[in-house]
Amino acid sequence: MADLGLSADIVAILIGLAVGGLIYALSYPFVSGEILAAKRVASVSEARAKKSGNSRSVADIAAQRKKQVAESLKDMESRAKSTQKVSLRTKLERAGLDTEPRTFWIMSLATGAFLGLFTFISVTGPSGPLASLAVALVGTFGLPHWFLNKLITRRQKKFQQELANAIDVVVRGVKSGLPLNECLQIIARESPEPIAGEFRYVVEQMRVGIPLSEALDRLIVRMPLAEVKFLAIVIGIQQQAGGNLSEALGNLSSVLRDRFRMEMKVKALAAEAKASAMVLGCLPPAVVTMTYISSPDYIMPLFTTTAGNLILAGSLSWMTCGILMMRKMINFKF
User: Fold this and answer.
1) How far from 85 is each of 81, 99, 173, CA to CA, in Å?
2) pLDDT tens for residues 213-234?
3) pLDDT digits (tens, 9 = 90+) for 163-193
4) How far apart are CA 127 and CA 309, in angstroms?
5) Following CA atoms 214, 220, 226, 232 in sequence, which dihedral angle do they give, to the nearest 10 degrees?
6) Is the dihedral of CA 77, 79, 82, 84 positive or negative?
7) Which residues lie closer than 8 Å to 239 by C-beta, 6 or more apart?
8) Which of the chain's ends, N or C, has fewer CB atoms near its CB within 10 Å?
């Protein structure tokens, strides 16, 4: 009986230990804090996943915008290459001249005929007809186109100087709640020429149903400047992908002002070199002219003898090479 009682006590103790161990095993995670730690780890992992997802979405948006900018640049480059040959009518529009190509050619022929006739009357001797023909060709095909290119360059410089102010007008109008079309109309009314004329043409195209992107592409044809291309790219991307137009145009305005400031700084630094190149280029013809006026018999062998003609040809060749070299050294692209 004693053995049976002892064995029953041992069995009871073992059963109690087993039950206690089971209760301890079930309650251990709650007591030790493992569940809380697992919950914290899960929350941290979820937050990191959300953060990485947001960063990936921001990166995707940035990559998409870069892709749109690259596609816009490629599209504009392809259009520029396809329309690389500029017609005379386009050149007249770029110069701001309300003249037909026929009128331009008539004026060019009249200028060439007048200069050729004047040279034929002034120059005597056997070289008179040849000199008059050369002057007539230069007066017909060279001088009018040179003058036209000068007008185009001067007009483009004025447009470039005033474009940043025009963009600031758009920025202030957009911030005050005006639509983009109304801001362009304000530029067309209140800005100086040639900004007003070019944007007036853009507004008139939009009134007849032409999209803004196409109107800006036509503006690039009339004003083939990098700044106008930047403006068209910014507005085109904003129309496609959305975003803060006033901020983008404000940044563009500051970039344009920095570019203009850099251009003026480069011109100031290169002014001395340009003056020296002009003096060196004009010195030989000036010396020849003064020598011919003071003592023509001394310099006439250069024009009347074979050896003198060879010396003149070699001198002109070396002078041309020197002028082209100096021009290459003092002209900067930025």
Assistant:
1) 8, 20, 37
2) 889 888 998 899 888 988 888 8
3) 999 999 999 998 888 888 889 999 998 888 8
4) 14
5) -20
6) negative
7) 212, 213
8) N
